[in-house]
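Escalation from tier 1.

The customer reports that the assembly of two entities below gives different C-alpha cells on two consecutive runs. Tier 1 could not reproduce it. I'm attaching the input and our single run for tier 2 to review.
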Amino acid sequence: MNDVTRAEIAVVAVAELFRGDGEIVASPMGTVPSLGAKLARATFEPDLLLSDGQAYLVDGDGTVEGWQPFRRMLDTIVPHGRRHVVMGANQIDRFGNQNISAIGEHGRPAKQLLGVRGAPGNTVNHRTSYWVPRHGTRVFVESVDVVAGVGYDNVAKAGAAAQRFHDVHRVVTNLGVFDFGGPDHAMRAVSLHPGVSEAEVGEATSFPVDCAAAGTTRTPTDGELQLIREVLDPQGVREKEVPS
Amino acid sequence: MGDKRTTVDDAVAELRDGMTIGIGGWGSRRKPMAAVRAILRSPVKDLTVVSYGGPDVGLLCAAGKVRRVVFGFVTLDSIPFDPHFGRARENGDVEVTEYDEGMFGLALQAAAQRLPFLPTRAGLGSDVPRLSPQLRTVRSPYDDGEELLAVPAQPLDVAFVHLNRADARGNAQYLGPDPYFDDLFCLAAQRRFVSAERVVSTAELTEAGAVQSLLLNRSAVDGVIEAPGGAHFTTAAPDYGRDEQFQKHYVDSAKDPERWPSFVDRFLSGDEAGYQAAVDRFAAEAVA
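Tier 1 run:
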C-alpha cells in the first residue's frame, strides 16, 4: 500500500518501542502511543498489559483482566519497574531531560503546564520513551526549563540510586525515531520517516542531531495497516494528532 | 454511637486562616466540590492546599483563598489545564511545592504512619529537589548504600473527601473503580470530613458493595455530610460521571476574566442547594 500516512508510520514506530518488552505494563499517553501499544499487543507483543486509562487492565477485546488504580500504580507498579511509559513532552533536550511542568522561570512561569506529574518517578524506575507529534525547535530545546523527566546528564549527577533503573529509551516524533546513543548520551537519529530529510530534522531541532547512521523508518505491513484502519482506529483519530 | 452528621458549612466553619487542608479525589475525579464551594463562601484565606489537583485548586485560587499549593499536577483530565491555576501561577499569586505524584502519596503516607519521612527513588535527578530546597536525601544503612530522597511527612490540619456512601458514624464507601488516596488524606489529618452522595444505614453499606469498598472506618472520620451531587462537576462514578458540558463552561468562563463574574453570580453566590438548582437549569437550557 503506497498511501500510508505519516500518522500510520508513527503508530508502527511507537509499536516498535515495545518490541521485546514481554509481560509488563505499557502506559502510552496520547492517541498515537495508545494505538502503537495496542498494535504491538495485537501483533508481536501479545503479553503486554494495557490499562483502559482508568483503573482497569483490559485485554484486546476489552475484557477486564486486572485492577490498577492510581494508588497501586504509584505504590508498586512504577517502583517495581515492570512498566514502559510513553509520555508526551513540552520540551526535550539533547540528553533526554523532559518538561511537562511549566515554561519559563518556575517561581512565576510564562506558562503553567501540568506539573511534573509522574515523570520524575517514571524516569528513574523503568524504561521511558517520549512521543512528540510536532517535532519543532520549541520542543527540542538546548535546555529544558523544568526537569520533570530525568535525562542522562542529570541522572549521572544524582548518583547510583537514580541511575540504577534509569532507561530513557527513544523519542518518536512525526519526523523520525531517536535515541540517546550519541557521545555522552546525546540524542541521535535512529531512523527518519519516509520522505523526511536530514535537513528537515536539523531545522526542527535546537541542537545538532547526528543523522549519519539513521535508516528509514519501516512502513506498516498490510496486516498492520488493516488493524490500524479497521480495528484500532476506524475513526482516523490518529490523523488529527499527526496531520498528513 | 456517635452521630457525626453535620453540614458542609459547619465543617468549613472550623477552618482558620493559614491552615493546611487536604482535598481528596484526583484531577477532575470525585473531588469534594461541595466542601470547596463552602470554602469559597467562607471568609477563610491563606490556605495551604494539598491536592492531586483539579478544579478544586482552580476555584480556590480564583477566590484568593490559597497561599501555597502542594501538588503533583493540576488537570481537568478531559481538558488538560485549569485556567485559574494557570493564571495564579503566571501572576505569581501562589507559592507551590511541586512533587512527583508518587512523592505526594508518600508524604501523606508518612504522615498517616507518624513517620518523619519515607524514602523513594522518585524525584532524584529531577528539578523537584532544586525547586524545594528543604528536601533532603537519606542513605541506606545497608550494604547497598543507596542515597534516596527522603520525602517529609505532609500532615494536614483538615481533610475533605467525597465518597459514594457513608453511614452517620463515618464508615464510608467508594463504589467506583478507584479509591484514589482518600483514606490517606484522612489518616494524615487532624480533622476529617467526608461528604457522601447518600448517608445510609450501616447495614446498607455492604449491600451496595463488597466489604473492600469500605475505604474509611469511623475512627478516621470526624464529620459526615450528606451532599448529593457533592462532587459535581467532577466524576462520582457510578452515581454520575463528569459533567463535561459544565466543565467546559467552567473553563470557557475561567479563561476570560470578563466572563468569570457572571459564572460566579450564577453558580457560586448562593448555598449548595442554589448551586445544584442553577446546574439543573444550565443542563435544561443546554438541552433546549
